[in-house]
TrEMBL record:
The gene is ybeY. PANTHER family: ENDORIBONUCLEASE YBEY, CHLOROPLASTIC (PTHR46986). Single strand-specific metallo-endoribonuclease involved in late-stage 70S ribosome quality control and in maturation of the 3' terminus of the 16S rRNA. GO terms for molecular function: metalloendopeptidase activity; RNA endonuclease activity; zinc ion binding. This is Endoribonuclease YbeY. Keywords: Cytoplasm, Endonuclease, Hydrolase, Metal-binding, Nuclease, Ribosome biogenesis, rRNA processing, Zinc. Its EC number is 3.1.-.-.
Length: 141
């Protein structure tokens, strides 16, 4: 079960990748998911907007797009695309450190792959709670 981080034409500083990978693996285990592979791709607003238009028919900027690629129930293989431009802007908007916002979005993508949704107010509240739990646990390590 491999977890990879790739930056496409953006500068992203991701500290302690080994710890982050171990935390993500434990997250999937706690959620009862067998993780087979996970690819995080850090990119620009323009790149993610193009993907949003092409694959989701949405003509809006977003901070994250998550694709579940597994064809076997109970296993997870996915790709998570994260706009570093949105992460930076949202960090300022919400008055949090860029590192914290980046990790929130990383955990958000993993939680989507674990089956959490965020389209309704109730689902979004649960997603935010799970993100906060992940942030607190991760930064206490």
């Amino acid at each position: 079960m491999a977890i990879h981080f790739t930056a496409l034409e953006v500068n992203v500083k991701l500290k302690n990748k080994t710890n982050l990978k171990a935390f993500l693996k434990k997250l999937f285990e706690r959620e009862g998911q067998q993780l087979h592979g996970l690819q995080y791709v850090f990119c620009s607003d323009a790149y993610l907007l193009e993907m949003n238009q092409q694959f989701l028919q949405h003509d809006t900027y977003t901070d994250i797009i998550t694709f579940e690629l597994s064809e076997v129930a109970g296993t997870t293989e996915g790709e998570v695309y994260i706009s570093i431009d949105r992460v930076r802007e949202n960090a300022g908007k919400f008055k949090v450190a860029e590192e914290q916002e980046l990790h929130r979005v990383i955990f958000h993508g993993a939680l989507h792959l674990c089956g959490y949704k965020d389209k309704t107010k109730k689902d979004a509240a649960l997603m935010r709670q799970k993100e906060d739990e992940c942030l607190q646990s991760y930064f206490e390590m």
